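Revision sheet: structure tokens.
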Amino acid sequence: MQSPYPPDFTVLPHNRIVHKPFYNASFYHKNNRSEFDALLKKYGRRIETGAIGPVEVRASSVHGYGLFAAAELKEGDWIGEYTGEQRWAMPFSRKTDYAWAVPAPTLPRLEIDARRCGNALRFANHSFDPNAVADHLLYKGNWIIVFYAARPIRTNEEIFIDYGEAYWSTPQRELHISPELFDILKKTPAALTPTEECEKL
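Predicted:
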């Protein structure tokens, strides 16, 4: 089968840090620490090694290529870290179809884009009734996105993720946060003032 990756695509086990955001994550991290710690405890070793679950990329009956389970997955089973370029979110006209916005208090907004580099998870198609979860956590000072099974997934079943409501108005996938936390974040100073270096880029 022809490679699903575009020419000159680089496969990454971890994010390529293009921009390190200027932010104070203490408030956001504190309010979600138990969730982040649980994810790190469960998947930390797999994150460290860049492990990918039993998945493969094939032609999808839904759209283009898709991500498929190469073996049975139980609820909570690891699928992988969504890797790409970690950078400040691009202007609307330059956004790509492979960027996930991270709902963390960063300035400028942070995204992870797998258009030019990343891994097989970039091919997971959207569903409003997904069988996998996209979640995020702080790992070694950087925000990362991880996928795991939301329910049992059969061998050869396509893996679907909910891209979030923002995707349908802008070509950017957005992770979900609770409405309560979103209201708190809107009222909270989100970040430190960018340096001159930040303002030049």
